Amino acid sequence: MTHAVCPGSFDPPTLGHLDIIGRVAGLFERVTVAVLVNPAKQGMFTVEERLDLLADAVEPWANVDVDSFGGLLVDYCTSHGIRAIVKGLRAVSDFDYELQMAQMNKGLSGVDTLFMPTSPAFSFLSSSLVKQVATYGGDVSAHLSPPVHAALTARLAGQRQDRS
Ligand code: PNS
User: Distance between CA 133 and CA 4 in Å, rounded?
Assistant: First the structure.
């Protein structure tokens, strides 16, 4: 069975992420979207919140599930019988670091990485840019699914209230 993982921080998941996940779902029998648990970095959303947002977003694809992982991605792959990591590439600037990680992961475990070019509509999109723009009142509704946009709006409103 061909089982691939789409790993990331997904803080929050954008339409760019969903573009890649949906296309990977058409190529592999099973796809796991794996959210990194990174104790060193506090996100805007907890890992549980990101998993909930992702679970809702991937509902259209019956062969896609969501999970979280800590430590090395290749250890997660090995323990779950995953033979391929799929990463989206937005631009050449992504390639340098992604290639380093792909080669390190291959050397560590034999797990291969496949790169999928993002659709042009999402080539400038990142979770951090979306958060930054939304924090200062910019409209990011075109870049997020409606539930993710609602969650982000609510989180920012809560943060503003906490500060006042
Ligand atoms: O969405 P991101 O933050 O670009 O995702 C990066 C991610 C989670 C794929 C990467 O940081 C990762 O695989 N982290 C797990 C730790 C690990 O395996 N590090 C070694 C990479 S060679």
Answer: 32
What's the predicted TM-score (pTM) here? 0.96
Residue of 44, 54, 101 to mutate, ligand 1, most atoms within 8 A of C-beta: 101
Residue 29 predicted with pLDDT over 70: yes
Task: List pLDDT tens digits, range 94-144.
Answer: 999 999 999 999 999 999 999 999 999 999 999 999 999 999 999 999 999
Residues within 6 Å of ligand 1 by CB: 7-9, 36, 72-73, 101, 104-105
Cα separation, 47 vs 92, in Å, equals 29
Q: Whose CA is nearest to atom 13 of ligand 1?
A: 73
> Is the pLDDT reported for residue 163 higher than 70?
yes
Cα(85) to centroid(ligand 1), Å: 11
Nearest CA, atom 19, ligand 1:
72
